[in-house]
Design brief:
The structure is a homodimer of 183-residue chains. With 183 residues, chain A is mainly α. The first copy, chain A, has two domains: 6-88, Arc Repressor Mutant, subunit A (Orthogonal Bundle); 99-181. The first copy, chain A, is built from seven helices and two strands, in the order H-H-H-E-E-H-H-H-H. Chain A has helices at residues 6-17, 22-30, 41-54, 77-88, 99-105, 112-141, 149-181; strands spanning 57-59, 73-75. Chain A has a two-stranded antiparallel sheet with strand order 1-2. Chain A is elongated. Chains A and B meet through helix 1, helix 4, helix 5, helix 6 and helix 7 of A and helix 1, helix 4, helix 5, helix 6 and helix 7 of B. Chain A binds a DNA duplex (28 and 28 nucleotides) through residues 2-7, 21-23, 39-43, 45-46, 49, 67-71.
Amino acid sequence: MAMKNNTKFAILGILSIAPGSGYDIKKYCDTVIANVWHENYGHIYPVLTSLLAEGVIRRQEEEQEEGSRRKIYEITQKGREEFITWLGEPAGYAPVRSEFMLKFLFSSSLPRENILQMISEYRVRHQRKYDELVQTQKDLEADYFIISADRKQYLKAALRFGIISSEAAIKWCGEAAGIFENK
Amino acid sequence: MAMKNNTKFAILGILSIAPGSGYDIKKYCDTVIANVWHENYGHIYPVLTSLLAEGVIRRQEEEQEEGSRRKIYEITQKGREEFITWLGEPAGYAPVRSEFMLKFLFSSSLPRENILQMISEYRVRHQRKYDELVQTQKDLEADYFIISADRKQYLKAALRFGIISSEAAIKWCGEAAGIFENK
DNA sequence: GTATCCATGTAACCAGTTACATGATTGC
DNA sequence: GCAATCATGTAACTGGTTACATGGATAC
């Protein structure tokens, strides 16, 4: 199962909301959905080229001001169809590979304080992420961003996903630190 | 930051507990630490070869019964040193890429029942994982496996990590389903 | 006038996956 | 006698990362 061709569908999904450039797609990933998805320029641009060749996206030539370097793409009918098909398929899952947990698992040769330090850093990272997400949630609630009520609902749910996950990580840190503190 | 060379350190970590073959390493990944780590044969064997060339592991020639195909490796002093250094470095984190959340985010064009179905499948998957981990925890508690008290402590903590994460996912599913049920 | 953001791309690289190949041993 | 497990490996592939290159526009 694993994961393949996800960048294709991430791009189709983003373009299904609104047409945009490679740069726009990257920005969308880094802001709106950073919480659950990630892409690089080095992958977006070549994939855009291949999606164009496949005919699932097309250049939106109209309404471009002269001299603009921006290349705006929009999803085609074929693209929408393939996207809907993909949506209907069960999500593949990537096998877990947590570098932090790998380190933690084999950290018995480290002094107690170092292990506590490791856990503390991990907690701080998740606490920061948590705070960030809560802030974004407030901004979203306060209609700081201009999006449809429908879209907002999905983004809110995705934010909750991140918040709940961060809470879980923080909870684990508390438990794990407890083991090493009382010895 | 991202993640590089993790297989090297996963192998060194596993061999730091006890010498073993490529097959043993794979089995260890699939059972004991499946919860937080994953490896393929197609990667383990070539990496073992390169680790041998680097001198961080060595063949344990002694005590092998005749005609055995098993190749037992053990970590060298150099390997232990590199492993300790790696342990001391802060863990890199892989940017989140949840195929499920990607689908969910853009699923607004799907009928309500399909979205509920998606969420339900996701919940079932995590519930199953949760049940499995709780069972493993019981087996571990009942000294079903032969491991040192020290090792047990780390494995228990890693199990808790999986259990807490599954609980979080299940919690999210409850919330998300709620959004679509009451409309 | 300089830093930051906008904007697009390529090339080299690498980690990891999948599929294939082979064969011995053990348990039923 | 057959299936499952033990056991090791290679080759082709692919998805994604990193580094490099370039240059215009905007803000301070």
